[in-house]
Design a protein that fits this description.
Blueprint lengths: L1 E2 L2 E2 L2 H23 L11 H24 L4 H24 L5 H25 L1
Antiparallel strand pairs: 1-2
Helix pairs in contact: 1-2, 1-4, 2-3, 2-4, 3-4
């Protein structure tokens, strides 16, 4: 598939979405346990999580193609940079008291790792 002159690998997008869901399922069930108080109840959080996983994989595919990353290492670096940017935003929110330090660590542990892995996957499959 092609978008604005950038070739996108549909197989990588699907694999990345599945990777994101598997990693998130394992990460959050291990970190937060089976029950989280004050969280969203019902199926919406799971439906939204699936949508986010595939949109994230699609956007990573687009960025990898846009930057011309054509190896696993180059993809890993693009994903890591995105993870660092997300980490900086969460850290700023933590400094202003919008997140607890524990929530900050949980969030960056998820996002820094998954975007690095998505970058690696898309760079490898590009």
């Amino acid at each position: 598939m092609e978008l604005n002159g950038v070739l996108l690998n549909t197989t990588a997008i699907i694999a990345g979405g599945l990777l994101y869901m598997i990693y998130g399922g394992i990460y959050y069930s291990t970190i937060l346990g089976k029950k989280k108080e004050n969280g969203e109840t019902g199926p919406f959080k799971y439906i939204f999580s699936v949508i986010v996983a595939f949109i994230s994989s699609f956007l990573m595919s687009y960025l990898i193609g846009l930057f011309g990353a054509d190896s696993a290492v180059e993809g890993l670096m693009v994903g890591f940079i995105i993870g660092i940017l997300i980490t900086m935003v969460y850290y700023k929110n933590t400094l202003f008291g919008l997140l607890t330090r524990k929530s900050f660590i949980i969030a960056i542990g998820d996002h820094l790792v998954i975007f690095t892995l998505l970058g690696l996957l898309h760079g490898w499959m590009n």
